[in-house]
């Protein structure tokens, strides 16, 4: 049985490929640039782009199961081509925002395309990734060993390690998970200050935390450019999930994420395991902060 992983060189997809190889599965990987893929030995690497569905057709030949990276623009066509080629089961990388009803036009469109195809399906819906803050805090820590960010001692969400998302995706390829959606979190709620301390412990160095206002943080992130600038308004609560202007007090978003803030049971239900801690994630990524 061959399993095709789309988005195979991405944050989650790379882990999915590696874990499937470790499990002894026959793995095929789809990537836009095979020359730069750097995937494990034995993986069949195919060139293709989900935004160009015809380019993916050769990779579907002989595939029974598919890990689908979300591209809502072409999801229906890609799924139809997969079905025509004989794919019978799809695991969708989705998002916890679908569970909350905040995502009404992105991941939900991919889920719907798969469900309406008549194929066997399972959805994996992770909440906040532990790695979300890496493009923001990483440069700060490298430059000054100081994180300047709000919310210091507020008990925040329970973010999940990207490798654990992959672990669930691999588990969901089993028959018993067909027709289910799993909403994922990590095993512990954390404060910003606690996360910074975990990174400091991994580095075995002092990393300072300086609390700033949301407005000050937005100026800092916008000046950084890239992902930090692009995500600043959402990360700091100035806009709703869909990008609409916050309608709460002082112009902040008042969307309620409380159902996702605490550790959720679905990781354990899907895998029978306990998820990796933030301290483990910090050790795994320590070189990104040096």
Automatic annotation (TrEMBL):
Gene3D superfamilies: NAD(P)-binding Rossmann-like Domain. Residues 7-175 form the NAD(P)-binding domain. InterPro entries: Ergot_Alk_Oxidoreductase (IPR051604), NAD(P)-bd_dom (IPR016040), NAD(P)-bd_dom_sf (IPR036291). It comes from the Bacteria. PANTHER family: PRESTALK A DIFFERENTIATION PROTEIN A, PTHR43162. This is Uncharacterized conserved protein YbjT, contains NAD(P)-binding and DUF2867 domains. It comes from Kibdelosporangium aridum.
């Amino acid at each position: 049985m061959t399993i095709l992983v789309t988005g195979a060189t991405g944050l989650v997809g790379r882990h999915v490929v590696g874990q499937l190889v470790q499990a002894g599965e026959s793995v095929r990987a789809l990537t836009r640039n095979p020359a730069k893929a750097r995937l494990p030995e034995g993986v069949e690497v195919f060139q293709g782009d989900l935004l160009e569905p015809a380019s993916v057709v050769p990779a579907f030949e002989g595939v029974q199961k598919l890990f689908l990276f979300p591209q809502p623009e072409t999801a229906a066509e890609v799924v139809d081509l997969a079905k025509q080629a004989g794919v019978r089961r799809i695991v969708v990388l989705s998002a916890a925002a679908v569970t909350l009803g905040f995502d009404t036009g992105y991941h939900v469109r991919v889920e719907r395309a798969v469900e309406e195809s008549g194929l066997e399906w399972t959805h994996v819906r992770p909440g906040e990734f532990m790695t979300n803050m890496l493009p923001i805090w990483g440069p700060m820590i490298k430059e000054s060993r100081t994180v300047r960010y709000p919310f210091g001692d507020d008990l925040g969400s329970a973010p999940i390690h990207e490798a654990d998302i992959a672990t669930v995706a691999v588990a969901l390829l089993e028959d018993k998970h067909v027709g289910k959606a799993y909403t994922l979190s990590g095993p512990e709620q954390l404060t910003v200050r606690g996360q910074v301390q975990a990174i400091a412990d991994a580095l075995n160095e002092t990393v300072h935390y300086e609390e700033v206002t949301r407005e000050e943080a937005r100026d800092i992130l916008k000046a950084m450019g890239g992902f930090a600038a692009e995500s600043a308004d959402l990360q700091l609560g100035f806009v709703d999930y869909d990008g609409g202007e916050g309608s709460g007090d002082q112009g902040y978003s008042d969307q309620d994420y409380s159902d996702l803030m605490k550790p959720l049971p679905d990781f354990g239900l899907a895998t029978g395991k306990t998820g990796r801690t933030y301290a483990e994630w910090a050790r795994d990524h320590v070189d990104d902060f040096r």
